[in-house]
Amino acid sequence: MFAEVIGGILSGSLALLADAGHMLTDAASIALALVAMQFATRRATTERTFGFHRLEILAALINALTLWLVAGWVAFEAYHRFQDVPEVEGGLMLTVGVIGLFVNIGAAWILHSSAEDSINVEGAFQHVMADLLGSVGVVISGSLIWAFGWTLADPIVSVVICILILRSTWSLLVKVVHVLLEGTPEHIDVYRLCSKIEEVEGVTLIHDVHVWTIAPSYEALTAHILIDPDYQGDLDALRERLRDIASRDFGIGHITLQLEKSKKGCTEDHHVDHLFAHARPSPY
Fold it and tell me: Would you state the pLDDT for residue 223?
C-alpha cells in the first residue's frame, strides 16, 4: 500500500492511488473480520441471548459498503481526469503494479478456502479480489502508457475497476441484507422440511414456522407442531425425532419446537402451504 501511494504520487497515476486506497480498506476489512469473529465466540448473556454472532454479518455489511465508497471516490476522480488528462510515468506505474499484483494473489490464495464457510471472511475476500482486479488494471494501463504513451488509459482503467468492484460486491450485499431481514437460508427448503415432519406418525400439522440465519453456518428453526389428540406415544421421543429431522437432514443448529394438541390460544397463523407444494418453487 505504501509503495503504491509513493508510486502513485511520483508517477501521477490515479489507478495506483485508487489501488492503494483500496488496499487500505482491505487491511481494515480483514481487521474488522478478525475482531467480529473474536467477539462471536463470547458467551450469550441475558442482555444478548444470541451473543455477538450477528457482528460477523454487520462486519460483512460494512466491508461491502466501504467498497462502494471507494468505487465512488475513484469514479469521481476519474471523471476529472477525463476533463484534464495529466502526465503519467508508465514505467514506474507498471513496476509498482506488478508488485501489487503478486501481493494480492498471495492474499487471495490465503483467504479463498475460508471464504466459502463465512460470509464475514467472504467480505474480506471480496475486498482482496477487487484489489487484485485493480492491480491487473494498473498493470494493463501502465503497459499502455509505457509502450504507447496513452495516458488516457489511466482513468479508463480506473472506471473499469469501479465497475468490477460494484459487481463483485453486489452478491455479498444481497446475502447480508437477506440475513438481516431474517430470510430463509438458501440451502433450506422449508416446504420439504414441513412435509417430512408431517410424515411422522402422530403429527397432524406444522404451523407458525420460522427459519432464519443467526450467523454464518448457524441457522435457527421455531415451529408449532399440532399432535393428533389420540396419539398415545411418548411426546419427548416424538420431539427428539422431529428435532433430528431438522438437525440431521437440514443442518439446522438452533431448534425450538412446541408440541400442542390444539391451536386454541395460538395468535399466529403462519402456514407455508406445504400441503400443496412439496418443494421450494423454482426461481426460473
Answer: 92
Q: What residues does CATH 1.20.1510.10 cover in the chain?
A: 2-180
Taking the CB of residue 278, how many other CB atoms lie within 10 A of it?
12
| CA-based torsion, 238, 242, 243, 248: positive or negative | positive
Which one-letter DSSP state was computed for residue 276?
T
Residues 6+ apart with CB under 8 A from 115: 121, 122, 124, 125
Architecture of domain 2-180: Up-down Bundle (1.20)
Task: Indicate the SS3 state at residue 88.
Answer: coil
Residues of each domain in the chain carrying CATH 3.30.70.1350: 182-284
The CATH homologous superfamily for domain 182-284 is: Cation efflux protein, cytoplasmic domain (3.30.70.1350)
State whether residue 214 is helix, strand or coil. strand
Rounded distance, CA 60 to CA 26, Å?
12
pLDDT at position 133: 79
| Residues with Cβ within 8 Å of residue 228, at least 6 apart in sequence | 202, 203, 204, 261
